[in-house]
Amino acid sequence: MKTLLVTGGAGFIGSNFVLKARQERWANVVNLDKFTYASNSHNLAPLSEDSGHCLVAGDIGNSELVTDILLQYRPDAILNFAAESHVDRSIADPEAFIQTNVVGTFRLLEASRKYWLSLPPESKQKFRFLHVSTDEVYGSLSLEDPPFHENTPYAPNSPYSASKAASDHFVRAYYHTYGLPTLTTNCSNNYGPYQFPEKLIPLVILNALNGQPLPIYGDGQNIRDWLYVEDHCDAIYQVLEKGTIGETYNVGGLNEKTNLSVVKNICSLLDDLAPKENGSYASLITFVEDRPGHDRRYSIDCRKIQQELGWQPRESFESGLLKTVKWYLENPAWIEQVQSGNYHDWIHKNYAGRMA
Ligand code: NAD
Ligand code: TYD
C-alpha cells in the first residue's frame, strides 16, 4: 500500500480525506498538522487504533521537521491541504496567511524537491506533489460571466486568495523549473461534517440552534458554487491517481446558490428536524455590514476533471445539506469542543461591529 504525507489533515477537508483514505484503503497516511484553532484531533478519533495513520504535530514551514518526516516515512506522494483558510480572518490579520500559505508551501516544496531528487528512478517517476487550492484565486464573476476554467487569469481579491494564488504559482514554478511532478486542484466552496463554525454553513446551523442571529453579509445575493466535502476528497484522489503532472484541475459542485437561499434552506431543514417553539428559524436572519472586497460570484467549469478523469459529484446540494445538518445535530460533543477556546473571541471580533 502507498504512503501519503497529508498536511493539514486535522482540519475540515484534510480530516475528511484522511478518514476516507483509511476507510477505503487508498493508502497509509502520515498526517502533519500544526494544530491551529481550525484543527481538531477529535475528527481523527476513529483512527486512534489504526496503525496505518500517524499524526505528527508540526508546521509545514519547518524544513528540518519536514525533511525528517520525508526521510523516515518515505512517502509516495505529498498532499498539501495545510493552510489558513478563512477570508474574514485574512482581512482582520493577514500575516499568518503569508507565513503558512506562501512561505510554508514554498518550504514544503523545497523539502519535497530535495527528497524527490534522492529517490531511486522508479519511485522518483511515480512521486507526486498535490497542492489543494481554491477557486477564489480567479477573483469575482458577474452574473453574465462564464464560469472559471483552468486558463482563467488569476485575479485574487482577498489576502486569503492572494496567498493561495502565490502558493499555486510556486507549485507551478517547481514543475516548470525543477520538473517536480506537481498537480494542483482549484475547488469551490466545500461543506459537510467537521467544518469549523466560522464558515457560513456550520455558523448558521449553530447560531440557529442557539437562537442567535443568522448574519448575512450585504444583500445576501453573493453566489457560491457548493460542493459536498466527500466529493472533493474523491476528486483529489482521482487527480492523484490519474492526473497529468504539471496540470491543474478545477473542481466544482455544479450548485450555484445565493447566500440568502443557502441560509433559507438550512432554516427549513432545521424547521423539520429540530423545530423551535416560536416559528421558523428564518426569523433569525439578519442582514449585516458587508465583507470588504466581497467577491460577488464564483462558478466553476469542471469539464476537464469530468471528461479526462471521469469524476462526478455524487451529492446534490439538497442531499449534501441534509446530511450536513443531521451531522451537526448528532454531534453536540464535537460542537461544544470547537466552540471552546478562542471561538467566542473571534465571533465577537468579526460580528460585533457589523451588527451595530
Ligand atoms: P481548515 O482551516 O479547516 O484546516 C486547515 C488545517 O491546516 C488545520 O488543521 C490547521 O491546523 C492546519 N495548518 C494550518 N497551518 C499549518 C501549518 N503551517 N503547518 C501545518 N498545518 C497547518 O481548512 P480546510 O477548509 O480544510 O481547507 C483545506 C485546504 O483546502 C486549504 O488549502 C484551503 O485553501 C483549500 N480549500 C478549501 C475550501 C473550503 O471551502 N473550505 C475550498 C477550496 C479549497
Ligand atoms: P465563507 O463560508 O466564509 O466562504 P468564502 O468566503 O471562502 O466563500 O462564506 C461563504 C459566503 O457567505 C461568502 O459570500 C460570505 C458569506 N457569509 C455571510 O454572509 N455571513 C457570514 O457570517 C459568513 C461567515 C459568510
CATH superfamily grouping of one domain = NAD(P)-binding Rossmann-like Domain
Structural class: alpha/beta
Shape: globular
| Low-confidence blocks of residues | none
Provide the helix percentage: 40-55%
Bound ligands = nicotinamide-adenine-dinucleotide, thymidine-5'-diphosphate
- The N- to C-terminal Cα distance equals 56 Å
Percent range for β-strand residues: 15-25%
Supply the CATH class of one domain: Alpha Beta
Order of helices and strands: EHEEHEHHHEHEEHEEEHEEHEHHHH
For this structure, the quaternary state is single chain
State the major sheet. Answer: 7 strands, parallel
Describe the model:
By secondary structure, this protein is an alpha/beta fold. The protein has a domain at 3-192 and 227-255 and 293-317: Rossmann fold, CATH 3.40.50.720. It is built from 13 helices and 13 strands. It has helices at residues 12-23, 63-73, 87-92, 95-117, 121-126, 159-178, 200-209, 229-242, 259-273, 303-309, 317-330, 332-338, 343-355; strands at 3-7, 28-33, 53-57, 77-80, 128-134, 182-187, 190-191, 214-217, 223-225, 227-228, 248-251, 256-258, 285-288. Helix 6 (159-178) links the parallel strand 5 and strand 6. The longest helix has 23 residues, at 95-117. It is globular, with a radius of gyration of 20 Å. 45% of the residues are buried. The mean pLDDT is 97. It binds nicotinamide-adenine-dinucleotide (NAD) and thymidine-5'-diphosphate. Residues 87, 189, 199-200, 203, 215-217, 222, 224, 259, 291 line the site of thymidine-5'-diphosphate.
